[in-house]
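Tokens in:
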């Protein structure tokens, strides 16, 4: 099933690329957009061609397959070779222990160094 969706996705991608490259521009030039009062904001409108309809269909198919693939791959669990443990790792009995820090203030030494005369 997922292989078929990936196949449709790739076909939709290639179709969009191919059809968009085949289409001609809607406006004539950049200067015509600002210079002509009769042109509309988005260029002259006319009847939709078969290329435009195929582009819209491929774009819709691309978006739908993108959402299906995103949902499908986000729901999969990640397989790992490292087992998940909920307990803290146990230390071996012969492992050296580190001294712990206490919150008590440091004490002055009881045997001061002898003073030189």
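Residues out:
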């Amino acid at each position: 099933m997922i292989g078929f969706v990936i196949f449709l996705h790739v076909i939709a991608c290639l179709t969009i690329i191919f059809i968009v490259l085949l289409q001609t521009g809607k406006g004539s030039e950049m200067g015509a957009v600002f210079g002509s009062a009769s042109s509309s904001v988005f260029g002259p409108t006319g009847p939709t061609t078969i290329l435009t309809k195929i582009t819209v269909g491929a774009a819709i198919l691309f978006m739908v397959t993108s959402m299906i693939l995103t949902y499908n791959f986000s729901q999969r669990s990640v397989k790992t070779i490292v087992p998940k443990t909920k307990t803290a790792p146990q230390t071996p009995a012969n492992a050296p222990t580190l001294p712990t820090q206490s919150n008590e203030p440091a004490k002055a030494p009881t045997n001061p160094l002898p003073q030189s005369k």
